[in-house]
Structure formats: structure tokens, C-alpha cells
Amino acid sequence: MAQARARERTGWDAALEEFEHQAEHWDTADHSETGYLIAQALLAAVDIARAGGLQCEHRPNRLHHSRRHPLETGYAAHLSADTTCSVNR
Q: pLDDT (tens digit, 9 = 90+) per residue, 16-72?
């Protein structure tokens, strides 16, 4: 079990590093302001993931990431402008 968790963690870290790498590609003059915004969104997603995710009232004390698809967990609600969850509104 420990080996599986280590492999999962390694895979997760690799995915986050790839998001950071893709942000570098998007944040260029060729992609203009749109590329800059995409890069900022990718970097913000990495920051959120590394911080343990967003804390919401409908998921108290959430310590582990969900294995379900983000849209199945209502994650899209986290994308509101004020970054507060609107799932239970």
C-alpha cells in the first residue's frame, strides 16, 4: 500500500509540474493576453492543489482529494469570481 501511495504522489507531482510547464508555453507574446490568462489559471490550479484544495462547507475537514471526476463532485462551482463555493446556494 505504501508503494502505491508513493507512486500516486509521484504521478501527482509530475502532473503539477506539467501544468507549470504548460503555463510557461502559454505565457508568451505569441499567445498575447489570452495566453497570459491561461497561464495564470494553470498556476492558480497548481497553487490550489498544493495547498490541499479549496475548503467548502459541504466538504468539511476534507483531507484527501476525491477520486471522482471534478464535475461529479461539484468542483465547477469553485470557479466563481469570489472563489467561494456555490454548490449549496
A: 999 999 999 999 999 999 999 999 999 999 999 999 888 777 766 655 544 444 444
pLDDT at 13 over 80: yes
Residue ranges per structural domain of the chain: 1-51, 55-89
Residues 6 or more apart in contact with residue 66 via CB below 8 angstroms: 73
Contact 54, 63 (CB under 8 A): no
The pTM (predicted TM-score) of the whole model is: 0.58
DSSP string for the chain: -HHHHHHHHHHHHHHHHHHHHHHHHHSSGGGHHHHHHHHHHHHHHHHHHHTT---BTTBTT--S--SS-GGGGTGGGGGSTT----TT-
